[in-house]
Amino acid sequence: MDSQAKIRRAIWEQLQCATIDRHHAWRLPVLANVDEHGLPQARTVVLRDAQETYQRLMIYTDHRSPKALALAANPSSVLVFWSKALSWQLRVSLSTRIETRGERVEQAWETVVKTAAAADYLAPQTPGSPMPVHAGEPAESPAFAIIIANVLSIDWLELAAEGHRRALLTPDEFQWLVP
Ligand SMILES: Cc1cc2nc3c(=O)[nH]c(=O)nc-3n(C[C@H](O)[C@H](O)[C@H](O)COP(=O)(O)O)c2cc1C
User: Fold this and answer.
1) What does the alpha-carbon distance between residue 25 and residue 83 come to, in Å, rounded to a whole number?
2) What is the average per-residue pLDDT within 166-177?
3) 77-100, pLDDT tens digit by residue?
4) Are 105 and 98 contacting, i.e. CB atoms less than 8 angstroms apart?
5) 102 Cα–ligand 1 center, Å
6) How far is the CA of 94 from the centre of ligand 1 (A)?
7) Ligand 1 atom closest to Cα of 43?
8) Which one of 3.40.50.880, 3.40.50.11780, 2.40.30.10, 2.30.110.10 gives the CATH number of domain 3-177?
9) Where are the domains of the chain?
C-alpha cells in the first residue's frame, strides 16, 4: 500500500474507532453549516457511524432542531475533527440528508431508547425554544432523526515537528497541499 492509500485507510480507521471508543477525540466533532439567514452555525455532535465503502458518516439529532431544518433546506455542511493524540485535523465537506423514518432510523432508535438520551427526543418543546414556565407533556412520538452525511472531500492536516503535511482527499483522488 502506498503512503497515500495508507493515510486514507488510517483516516477511516480512526473515524470508525471514534464511533466505538468514547474517549476518542474524533467522537465529538463540530458540525458547521449555513442557516436560512446565510449565517454560519456550528455545534458539537457525536459521530455515530463511519463507513468508508459508502463514504458516509452518521449523526443523530432532533428533527425539530434548527440544524435539522437548516440542513433540509441547504444540505452543505462541514464536520471538523481534531485529535491531539494523532496530531490530525480533518475538515470533512459533506452533503447531508435527514432521515426521520425507515429501517436505519428504527434500528438507531432501538439503541437510543435504552439510554437517558431518549428523553431529549421526547421533550415537548422544540430544541432552542424559550424554556416554558410549565413543563408540557412528553411528545407522543420521538423527534428522533439521523443525519446521513455523504463525504465529498476530506482536508487532512497533520502537525509534526519535522514538517506539517496536508492533503485533500476525494473518493477518487489524493492531492498533496501546502499546509
Ligand atoms: C458533547 C456534546 C455532544 C452533542 N451531541 C449532539 C448530537 O449528537 N446531536 C445533536 O443534535 N446535538 C448534540 N449536541 C448538542 C448540540 O451541540 C447543539 O447544542 C444542539 O443540537 C442544538 O443545535 P442547533 O440549535 O444548531 O440545532 C451535543 C452537545 C455536546 C456538548
Assistant:
1) 5
2) 97
3) 999 999 999 999 999 999 999 999
4) no
5) 23
6) 18
7) 17
8) 2.30.110.10
9) 3-177
